Amino acid sequence: MALGRGGSMWLSLAVVLCMSIAGSASEIKVGFYSDSCPKAENIVKTELDKAFKASPGIGADLLRLHFHDCFVGGCEASILVDSTKGNIAEKESPPNETFEDEVFDVIDTIKKRLEYTCKRTVSCADIIAFAARDSVVHYGGKYYSVPSGRKDGRKSLINETVDLPPPTFNLTQLTALFALKGLNRDDLVTLSGAHTIGVAHCPSFADRLYNYSGTLKGDPSLDYVYAKKLKRECPPGNTVNEVDMDPQSSLTFDSGFYKAVTTHRGLFTSDQTLMSTSATSYKVYQYAKNPNLFKKAFAASMVKMGKIGVLTGKQGTVRANCRVINYS
Description:
Heme b binds at residue 195. Helices cover 45% and strands 2% of the residues. By secondary structure, the protein is mainly α.
């Protein structure tokens, strides 16, 4: 997806996309499985509780999984599909290669239990959405009801992952990309708060430390003390190390991310750029001061994001195995 086209082109594309999103999303609803599989959400939560005990940080990746799924072709579980001899799937792309195998294994475990209880009923796409919500709640975020009834897609193509916003994007680029997904600038600021939990790999922000904008120097907007700390943890050329995105509370869903951004300690360019306009910086300061306001807004934006490009009815399918496409 090319960025930087004329404003009228962006507006037209966004309007068309929003119309198609609204048309599909109107068919998903809270309690979709109340008759067909009433224990569905409890099964998801039960298996996730086991996963959190085994791997305390896995919820951050489950939340990111929902983002990466919805931004590429809509919330239709294409990110779970394995590559085949004739097709390279989304999960092989650089932004998705950082997911640990255990993330996909947890989804597989949940799916197996659901298939045993309610055969070919609960979609992989809905499992991702439920798991993201339960992860937010596990770390201290606000519970929200997840509209469900999504169907799974029948394709997964590596070249479509260009729709994922990279950590190097500025506010203008991010706003344009979010608009194409039916999300506004407030949603952008709010959903960026997902970075209050989890870790990041050194290559995703190394340019801010050693060669910002081709200057062979660090990003001048990055707090000097924080930059020194990051350099110790991510020496030049390191591709393995990880750092907490919110060092003060990496496993707590709070407003620490926004507090960091207000002090020039946003890890990514795409984080710190939230301070580049008065409107977005005002929202950042609001969230930094009022965690409950952030948590409530985040829940609402997650529901909105979860409606991007959903497939319902005969538009999609329900995979028995989340890793394998159903062509029927």
